[in-house]
Recover the amino acids of this structure.
């Protein structure tokens, strides 16, 4: 093996890599927002909707989860124009990523909704809450707290999956690496650098989601911790003097 690494042609294109990383993050965050909205609506419909609504959500989830993302992307980008819906590559990528993430987040959020004990809903009904008020205040927020780590992992996977949209000429990170490789013929250097950028982006997203979760759920955790300490102190006070430990 006589291959000699030469990083200068690749490192000279750092501005293009930065632009590609920016497109990757823009697509990722936009699809995360839209996909989470779709997943939340789907989870609520699957948990509290009528029989036909539940069947429709189940069909959507199973269709997306059992087909490759590349096929979904091609159907949107190449299929929709055949029926008169002209969309550009970036829009097609955003729609495909949001639809794909929506199916997975539907199941994740639904598991959190189903973890809510029925007595909590009964208590909400006793307080004259409407069905939507009970779902919003009693079920939805605790459900998000339970499944947030799984959602954060899925969000990071979605960012990595965005590399597939390079197949429809979206100039995200992988597409930029392919272009630079074809221009400089430095394949190892181009893709090793992209690999390192993806690792950095993944770590950045994981840290961001951790900090966001700590900020959003901090108050709820503080209240729960104070309640546990209160119950513990009440138990100690109720214990008879001289009782065995």
């Amino acid at each position: 093996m006589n291959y000699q690494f030469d990083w200068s042609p690749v490192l000279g294109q750092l501005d293009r890599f930065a632009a590609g990383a920016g497109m990757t993050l823009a697509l990722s965050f936009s699809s995360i927002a839209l996909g989470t909205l779709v997943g939340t609506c789907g989870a609520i419909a699957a948990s509290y909707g009528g029989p036909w609504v539940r069947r429709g959500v189940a069909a959507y989830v199973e269709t997306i989860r059992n087909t490759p993302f590349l096929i979904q992307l091609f159907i949107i980008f190449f299929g929709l124009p055949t029926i008169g819906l002209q969309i550009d590559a970036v829009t097609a990528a955003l729609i495909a990523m949001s639809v794909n993430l929506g199916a997975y987040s539907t199941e994740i959020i639904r598991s959190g909704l189903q973890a809510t004990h029925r007595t909590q809903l009964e208590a909400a009904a006793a307080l004259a809450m409407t069905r939507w008020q009970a779902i919003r205040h009693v079920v939805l927020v605790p459900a998000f707290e339970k499944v947030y780590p799984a959602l954060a992992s899925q969000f990071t996977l979605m960012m990595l999956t965005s590399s597939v949209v390079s197949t429809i000429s979206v100039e995200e990170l992988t597409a930029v690496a392919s272009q630079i490789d074809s221009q400089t013929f430095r394949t190892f250097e181009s893709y090793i650098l992209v690999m390192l950028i993806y690792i950095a982006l993944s770590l950045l997203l994981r840290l961001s989601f951790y900090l966001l979760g700590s900020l959003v759920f901090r108050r709820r955790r503080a209240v729960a911790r104070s309640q546990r300490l209160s119950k513990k102190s009440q138990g100690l006070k109720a214990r008879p003097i001289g009782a065995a430990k």
The mean pLDDT is 87. The chain has one domain: 10-218. Residues 45 and 53 are 6 Å apart (CA to CA). The first helix runs from residue 8 to 11.
